Amino acid sequence: MDDIVGRLQSAFPSHQLDVIIGSLLGDARLECRSQGIRASYTARFRVHHGEKQKDYVYWKYQMLKDLVSREPYKIKWRNEKRNLNEVSWFFHTKTLKNFGIIHEIFYKNGRKIFPKEILPIFTDVMLAVWFKDRHQWKIAIGSFDYQRFIDTITPYIPKAMSYKIGNPRIDLLSRKRAEPATLVGANTSVSG
Fold it and tell me: Which part of the chain is the Homing endonuclease LAGLIDADG domain (predicted)?
């Protein structure tokens, strides 16, 4: 087992690691607080979702409660791109060395990546959280069929997020041997 994977598994209980990794593959981010120059490499985990996902923010908060010093709260802000006033819910964790470990894995040259190092510990819960977090994405599930994918993640979808699995757009991509179901959006692609 990779040392990084072992450090991840010992840093957080599995239910928290599932939420953290799944969220980082989606909309969450880690904010680096110290890059190890004068002190240990540290970071904090930030969750930020729109008004419609308030219950989902609280679900994540409940999973990570012992790492957080303040309950989620509402903020109002101006979305200049859409010319709208928005309402969001967010919280962040305490700054910890363990989040610094994850930051080193998930961020390269200031950009968030999908680190292959997490594949040995990737779980159905991580996949479900990732699916819930993404507004638009694409997942090619190889020889899986769409219903099997939905059956895999549904047990981990809180009621507040069930709308995410109700009506996705489905395209079939032709390949030489298989026609995998593909959920279509932007920015992300995972092949099975």
Answer: 18-133
